[in-house]
Design a protein that fits this description.
This protein is an all-alpha fold. Helix 8 packs parallel to helix 21 and helix 16 runs antiparallel to helix 18. The protein has 22 helices and 6 strands. The protein has a two-stranded antiparallel ribbon. The protein has a two-stranded parallel ribbon with strand order 3-6. Strand 4 and strand 5 form a beta hairpin. Bound molecules: Sampatrilat-Asp and zinc ion (ZN). Zinc ion binds next to helix 13.
């Protein structure tokens, strides 16, 4: 009998979703994951196109290089750097691009204190890494959305958010940001004041956004590299132990051994022997590799590796803990069924290493491992420490939030191709209070100059991780019997903390993440909460409020100082300040 289309559809419906009626919850959970095909749901030719597109974007980004800054370079008549000189072959100014992001540009953005050089590097990187991706990205979005819809999602953003198994996920993170924004604004106001003291108020507007090239990082996402310009009480032992690491002859290998010893002290797993044989911890000189650090689970219970172009810096020591946290989580859930070998949600995976680093970075622990001379626990040292932690953990929050806010709006169509860059800068000014140091237009593609956009790696996981890692820290400190301020807690060698952490991590993705949180908090809560991170930074918040009492808190967009050539098709709505800057002869603008 020829089945009618109706009957065939009914059969499909019945068999396709029969698993939804299985009695076993874990089996239903497994089916709910394994039935999501992701990209593989695309027709062969489109899957091939999407895969090639992703590979092209990733290798284009990883191979991007720029020329060295040349202060003698011909200038425009207003003194501005003539970026187009490179193409001006008749005066053989052209250059060979030799500087790559890691380690050269990361180092330059962290250590240069020349605004002109910083502005050059900031723009040259975006010209080399972001601009070439713009056309590819639009096609990438189309194909990603098509794949998402074939999996039953609205668009790729909807698909990505489903990892959190939470209907009102966007409302939840909006609410968390609202609770944390006041602390961010206090830090922002204090740092802006210090940057005005360093660079003057013709570059840094007292009531406006901070120009993004002055914050020590290519994306202004963490500000730890301008600690020297902003530290509250200078002249005290620096909590940045980079120089001590170098003086003591630390190798990249030693830094990873140091991180491993912290995990072992909690009774967690050592790295498997193959880890030490097969990881790539030093940038090779004979070939180009994707230097962006990464941790790999080869899904056979034996082979786990980290790839990191490790520099001997405190930042890379913290990153070593971060990457090893991924491996530790992989090890803790390796006995779960394959489909459950993942983080309870992506933020949990990002939090593990950072939780241990919260203890490892404390002055008392750094003393214990001879990386810091004996530091008294004076109020000033406390504030210096909390401030350096805030330059990492608080400064990051709005950036961690806005990257996927932008991407979700691109996937949903709220941001069209003609608005990519102006909407990116709207979000950067509104949430982060940073501005482009020179005018941007829609030939630029600044989001593309950040690894996770061409690499198609979701980003809100880091925003959530920076909050949930303090919930972990608070609970592990309780288990370790810590008393006193949360920021002084060090769980080193606590078997109780290790046991609690193991109980959470070994679940993998076998249970919805609120249940994992409930295990962590012994039932006190199963929700994301800003309480612990606010408790941790409470002493700093009070101190900042007292320091900032005459300061303008927040920023006005039209106060932004944006210099640079107003390019022919400046489709970006130039901030009114640009018009002001272009009119008033006092400010150097062309
Ligand atoms: C096979 C695979 O891909 N594995 C995943 C891990 C897994 O899923 O198992 C993986 O290795 N992802 C790489 C990524 C690397 C880093 C990163 O991208 N960090 C963000 C945000 C941030 C910033 C400051 C900070 O302190 C912590 C995070 C950035 O740099 O902007 C760069 C150095 C730090 C972490 C990572 O480890 O998360
Ligand atoms: Zn990570």
């Amino acid at each position: 009998m020829e089945w009618s289309r109706f009957h065939r559809h009914k059969w499909d419906q019945a068999t396709t979703f029969a698993w939804k009626n299985f009695s076993s919850a874990p089996v239903r959970r497994m089916f709910s994951f394994v039935t999501v095909l992701g990209r593989a749901a695309l027709p062969e030719d489109k899957l091939k196109e999407l895969t090639e597109l992703t590979q092209e974007m990733k290798s284009s980004y990883s191979a991007a290089k720029i020329c060295r800054y040349d202060p003698t370079r011909r200038r425009l008549d207003n003194g501005d750097y003539d970026y187009n000189a490179d193409n001006d072959l008749d005066n053989d100014i052209g250059c060979i691009p030799t500087l790559s992001l890691e380690p050269h540009l990361v180092q330059l953005m962290a250590t240069s204190r020349d605004p002109e050089e910083l502005r050059y590097v900031w723009r040259a990187w975006r010209d080399a890494a972001g601009r070439p991706l713009r056309g590819k990205y639009t096609r990438f979005v189309e194909l990603s959305n098509e794949a998402a819809r074939l999996n039953g999602f609205e668009d790729a953003g909807d698909f990505w958010r489903s990892d959190y198994e939470t209907d009102d996920f966007e409302d939840i993170i909006d609410g968390l940001w609202a609770e944390l924004r006041p602390l961010y604004e206090q830090l922002h106001a204090y740092v802006r004041r210090k940057l005005i003291e360093k660079y003057g108020d013709t570059i840094v507007p007292p009531r406006g956004p901070i120009p993004a090239h002055l914050l020590g990082n290519m994306w202004a996402q963490t500000w730890t590299h301008i600690l020297d310009l902003t530290v509250p009480y200078p002249g005290r032992p620096s909590v940045d132990v980079t120089n001590t690491l170098r003086r003591q002859g630390y190798s990249p290998f030693d830094m990873f051994r140091l991180s491993e010893s912290f995990f072992i002290s909690l009774g967690l797993e050592p790295m498997p022997s193959t880890f030490w044989q097969k990881s790539l911890l030093i940038k090779p000189t004979d070939r180009d590799v994707i230097c962006h650090a990464s941790a790999w689970d080869f899904c056979n219970g034996i082979d786990y590796r980290i790839k990191q172009c490790t520099q001997i810096t405190m930042e890379d020591m913290i990153t070593a803990h971060h990457e090893m946290g991924h491996i530790q989580y992989d090890l803790q859930y390796r006995n779960q069924p394959f489909i459950f070998r993942d983080g309870a949600n992506p933020a949990f995976h990002e939090a593990v290493g950072d939780v241990l680093a919260l203890s490892a970075a404390t002055p008392s622990h750094l003393q214990e491992i001879n990386l810091l001379a004996n530091v008294d626990e004076s109020f000033e040292n406390d504030i210096n420490f909390l401030f350096s932690m805030a330059l990492d953990k608080i400064a990051f929050l709005p950036f961690g939030y806005l990257v996927d806010k932008w991407r979700w709006e691109v996937f949903s169509g709220e941001i069209s191709e003609s608005q990519y860059n102006s909407r990116w800068w709207d979000l950067r000014v509104n949430y982060q209070g940073v501005s482009a140091p020179l005018l941007r237009d829609e030939d630029d593609f600044d989001p593309g100059a950040k690894f996770h956009i061409p690499a198609n790696v979701p980003y809100v996981r880091y925003f959530v991780s920076f909050i949930v890692q303090f919930q972990f820290h608070a609970e592990l400190c309780k288990a370790a019997g810590h008393s006193g301020p949360l920021h002084r807690c060090n769980i080193y060698r606590s078997a109780e903390a290790g046991r609690l952490l193991r109980n959470v991590l070994s679940l993998g993705k076998s249970r919805p993440w609120p249940e994992a949180l409930s295990v962590l908090t012994s039932g006190r809560t199963n929700q994301l909460e800003a309480g612990p991170i606010l408790e941790y930074f409470e002493p700093l918040m009070s101190w900042l409020e007292s320091q900032n009492k005459d300061e303008f808190i927040g920023w006005q967009e039209n106060e932004a100082i944006v210099l640079g050539v107003v390019s022919s098709n400046a489709s970006v709505r130039p901030f009114s300040a640009v018009i002001a800057a272009l009119k008033s002869p006092s400010r150097r603008a062309s």
